[in-house]
Write a structure and sequence with these properties.
Blueprint lengths: L2 H4 L1 H5 L19 H30 L10 H8 L3 H35 L5 H4 L10 H17 L2 H29 L14 H15 L3 H25 L1 H7 L1
Helix pairs in contact: 4-5, 5-7, 8-9, 8-10
């Protein structure tokens, strides 16, 4: 298979999804202006280096046509009689997947909480705080239940593609927002400023947009359906309850 035709880069981007979730915990950081950029950039650099090192080891052990897609590293060690190492790698992979799921679920609950506080979603449910644990417990249970249901009935390949195209679209929107806000609100205080605007945002739009294009029309159809649902929610509820919009009209 020609990786240029298969849109391999769009699928590999799945491995990098989650770093942006750090930004959703800004309300729980002591110094978010300093800590969040450092946490995102350092973790991204470290993980990229580790990805490259693991890929280099795997390339030296197995011909690319013989790589086991389901468990590439563990299978490579197992085929060479390194059973103990294979088991350790499998346990590490399970721990890694578990931590990723927890981080993504945490990020989603914090996004819903912030949206509810801004009036974009019903506050009584999505922003309800547990009296003891001080966390948005209702939307946490809803997100966990929905993720469990979707994950149990949807093939992992389809989930990966849907997550990829949705996240890539979010990145494109953020890049556009950076340019728009720099133009419409240049005096706004920005503790962390995106460098080299508009070069960096434009490159982000082009690269992420190209990877979205490579994910195929089925994933685009799913994305459009979700966008339509989101637009319906916004125009039937969020627009009329938005704190920002109501403040501007007063």
């Amino acid at each position: 298979m020609d990786f240029r035709e298969s849109g391999l880069a769009a699928y590999i981007s799945f491995a990098y999804i989650g770093f942006d979730a750090v930004s959703t915990t800004a309300q729980e950081a002591k110094n978010p202006q300093r800590d969040l950029p450092i946490g995102i950039i350092v973790s991204l650099v470290v993980c990229t280096i580790l990805y490259i090192m693991v890929a280099g080891v795997l390339t030296g052990m197995v011909h690319w046509q013989d790589v086991n897609i389901e468990a590439p590293v563990a299978r490579a060690f197992l085929d060479r009689g390194l059973t103990t190492a294979s088991h350790i790698i499998t346990l590490g992979a399970l721990a890694g997947l578990t931590s990723v799921m927890l981080v993504m679920l945490l990020g989603q609950t914090r996004v819903l909480y912030s949206m509810a506080n801004d009036g974009l979603l019903p506050k009584k449910f999505f922003a309800a705080i547990h009296p003891k644990w001080r966390t948005p417990y209702k939307n946490t249970m809803a997100v966990g239940l929905l993720a469990a249901i979707v994950g149990s009935i949807t093939p992992i390949d389809d989930i990966g593609r849907m997550v990829n195209i949705g996240t890539l679209l979010a990145f494109v929107i953020v890049c556009i927002a950076v340019m728009v806000l720099r133009s419409t609100n240049p005096e706004q205080a920005r503790p962390f400023r995106t460098p080299w605007v508009p070069v960096v945002p434009v490159l982000g739009i082009l690269f992420n947009g190209y990877m979205m294009y490579k994910l195929g029309w089925i994933n685009w159809a799913r994305l459009i359906i979700w966008l339509v649902i989101g637009m319906v929610v916004y125009f039937t509820y969020s627009q009329h309850h938005s704190r920002v919009r109501n403040a501007e009209t007063k």
